[in-house]
Structures are given as C-alpha cells and as structure tokens.
Amino acid sequence: MASLKRWILVGLVGCLALALAYLPPRGAKSSGTSFFVGQTVWGTPARQHAQALAEEWRNADAAVRLLEDRQRVKRDSLRTSPTIVFRGAALPPNAVHKVETVMDSLWRGLGFAETKVRVTLVIELQRPYSLDTPTPLQDRVAYLAPDSTHRTTCLAYLPAGTYWTLVILGKREARHDGFGRFAQWLAAGLGPCAFYAAYGTPGTPVESWLAARHWDVGLYLGSHGIAGERFSSLDLLGNPSSPWYWWDGVYSFPPATVACLAGRPSGCRTAVLAGAADERTIRIPNIILVERRWWRVQHLLPGERYLGDVARTVGRDRFLDFWTSGQPVDTALAAALKQPVGEWTADWERGFVRPIRLGPAPPLGGVAIALAIAVLAIVVVAGTASRRQIR
Q1: How big is the chain by its Cα radius of gyration, in Å?
Q2: How sure is the predictor about 207, in pLDDT bands with cuts at 50, 70 and 90?
Q3: What is the chain's percent helix, strand, coil content, to nearest 5?
Q4: What percent of the chain has pLDDT over 90?
Q5: Distance (Å, rounded) from C-alpha 60 to C-alpha 4?
Q6: With the C-alpha atoms ordered 354, 355, 360, 364, is the resulting torsion angle positive or negative?
Q7: Reduced to 3 states, what is the DSSP secondary structure of residue 119?
C-alpha cells in the first residue's frame, strides 16, 4: 500500500512539472503548437496589437527616411565607391575619412569600378529617442532599390546600434574577428544594393522571386561570409554537439530546408525555388525590408551567400545572363549552372555542413547503449522475481 501511494505521489509531481513547463502563464496564450513541443509565450491581445502597430510605424518611418534621403543625397562625382551619409550625430572629418577609406578598400575588393547603379549607404548612429513614440528601426536593415523613377540609385539604410556607433566615433576599438570586423559589417550592410551595383536591375522573374522570399539568397555578395571565411548563418544554429538545441533549431525550418541539409537534391531544389512561382508586382517605391532575425526565416542555409557563391562559380557573363533573363528562374539558373539546380545546390550545401541524418536511423552507439540498458533491466527484473518465488 505504501508503495502504491509513493507511485501516485510521483505521478502527481510529474504532472505538475509538465503543467509548469508547457502551460502559458496567466495573461498570455500558447503558440498553438503541439503539446509535446515547448510553448512560446505570447503577450495579451492588447500588447500584441500595440507591438504590431509599433512595427508598422517603424517600417513606414524607415521607408520615409529612405525616400527623403534619396531626394536629398547628392552623389560625390569623385567617388566610385558608395557615398556614405551619417544620421543622428555630427562626426569629425577624421572619423568620416576613416569609414570612407574602409569602404573604398572593400569596394575595390569586390572588383567594382564604375557601376551603372550608384549606391548610397545611410548609417544611422545611435541616439536617444523620445519615450512618447516608438523607437525607429534599430535592428533591421532596409533598402530602397532602383525603380522606374530612379533607375540608377540604390540606398541602404544601416542602423549602427550602440557598439558600432562607439566604433565610428572612435570611442571603442573594433574586434578583429567574427562580427567585430568593421569591414565585414559594412559589406553585409550593402546587401541587395551590392548586386544592383554589380549586375544592374534583375529581370522580372528573378526580381519577383527575390521579392517573394525577402532576398534571403542575396543578402551578401562578398567572398568571405558575413563574419569570416567559414562563418555563415548555419553557425547561428549552435553547435551540433548540443543535440537538443541544434535539432530544435534545424526543425524550426521548412521541410525542404531540412531535406537540403540532409543532402537531398529534391529538397535543395524546392528550397532554392521557393517563391519562384509567385507573380509579384514590384511596388514603387521598391523598398526591401530584411527580416529582423533573418537567419531564422531562410528557405536555404546558408542562403545569405547563395547567389554570391553562384556568381563566383559560374563567372560574370553566365550569372549576368541568369540575372537579366526573362525565362523562369529554374530554367535560367540551371542554364547558368550547367547542372540541375538541386544537384548543384546539394554539392554546395556539403561545403558548409556534413549531411544530417533524417528518419528512424539511430546511431550505432545509441543502439548499443539502449540494448545494454535493456539487458540490464531484464537481468535485474529476473533476479528480483526469482527471489520472490514461494518455495
């Protein structure tokens, strides 16, 4: 009887622990996912509505700033690299010269000289804001791409945040690795504008495809990754040696993205061509807002450098044929790669991550440990039962 009560108590404690782990607190609701998946806590409806309005205000504010800057900014005819405009604080001439020198070196490294589409980089320095209004866009970059009214201008809006504001003002030294490298930060900030400068305005199918997926495959043109030679958005998933965190990140992506990580050409093809069938009308003004946590909403990993790697692999002429093609994206891209899109992408993916294992295929070591535990349990139960036999 005492043993039964103990097991009942253990069961109740387990139920209480599960309730604390999975049920949302008062004033919030669950994300609607499976009971066996951790529940994301959302705010109350009023708070969600306020956050949605604030987000709309930030997006509209960024769009207005870009349009105003396009009208106000005057190109420096002596510069072939992007014109750099600072907002939010006055900078001493030596600080401006330092940033322009880094950009000039970066521009030459990308192989650019005179371009048909001129780029302006607007750097928003950190500054205090009023508590009466939502803070402007501070953690998302935005771009004003060329359109029918301004065919030769692309603006990039890059919030500097606290860290890079101090670096630009000379109050802090930038680190020399990863995201601490100033040149890497500037290169990543160019985003789609770098592609417009290098190859001009894309054809309608390509532009519609990129707009449908928020340019997730064309966020970086450089050859060394967003923060180093081998660093990519895959590294932001965490360390594969921590399976719980790693696999939770992996399975947050669409099935085709996961299949491509497993090295399956069909999955890679679907991941690359996501959005290609959508016929989107490019708005005027053509404003590109990159998602806040862009590495969490990619259809392809590491998608931010995909088109940049394609361009370096196939060469300028073949990539330009794809970029300006009026054919469907699948056809134009396969012609540039001279290989089916899925097969080329699967090979490209293996250069960043070893194909993951999908399906019911546990590792040999795990099977051996499980069998050993099962045998031990059987031996213990058999020994206990033999001692309880009535003689």
Answers
A1: 27
A2: very high
A3: 50, 5, 45
A4: 30
A5: 64
A6: negative
A7: strand
Q: What is the DSSP string of 176-225?
A: SSGGG-HHHHHHHHHTHHHHHHHH-SPPHHHHHHHHHTTTTTSS---SST
Residues 210-219: what's their mean pLDDT? Answer: 91
Nearest to 69 by CA among 150, 126, 132: 150
pTM for this prediction: 0.75
Sheet arrangement for strand 118-125 = 83-87, 118-125, 153-160, 142-144, 287-289
Tell me if residue 120 falls in helix, strand or coil: strand
Helix (H, G, I), strand (E, B) or coil at 287: strand
Distance CA 98, CA 53 (A): 38
Calculate the alpha carbon distances from 65 to 29, 103, 124, 136, 218 in Å: 36, 22, 10, 10, 23
Long-range CB pairs of 177-185, under 8 A, 24+ apart, other chains included: 177/228, 178/227, 178/228, 178/231, 179/226, 179/227, 181/227, 181/228, 182/102, 183/102, 183/105, 183/106, 184/222, 184/224, 184/226, 184/227, 184/228
| Tokens encoding 231 | 């660093």
CA pair distance 387, 384, nearest whole angstrom:
5
Q: How far apart are CA 218 and CA 189, in angstroms?
A: 12
Q: Is 267 helix (H, G, I), strand (E, B) or coil?
A: helix
> How far, in Å, CA of 66 to CA of 312, rounded?
30
Q: Residue with structure tokens 């993916």? A: 349
Q: Tokens 């708070």 — which residue?
A: 47
**CB-based contact 221:299 (threshold 8 Å):** no
Q: What is the pLDDT of residue 204?
A: 92
* Alpha-carbon distance values, 301 to 92, 339, 359 (Å): 40, 20, 20
Domain boundaries, the chain: 49-201, 203-280+295-358
- What does the pLDDT average to over 302-319? 93
Residue type at 196 in one-letter notation: Y
Could you list the beta-strand ranges (E) of the chain: 83-87, 118-125, 142-144, 153-160, 287-289
pLDDT value, residue 131: 52
Q: Which of 195-204, 289-298, 303-312, 332-341 has the lowest mean pLDDT?
A: 289-298
User: Alpha-carbon distance 111 to 198, whole Å?
Assistant: 9
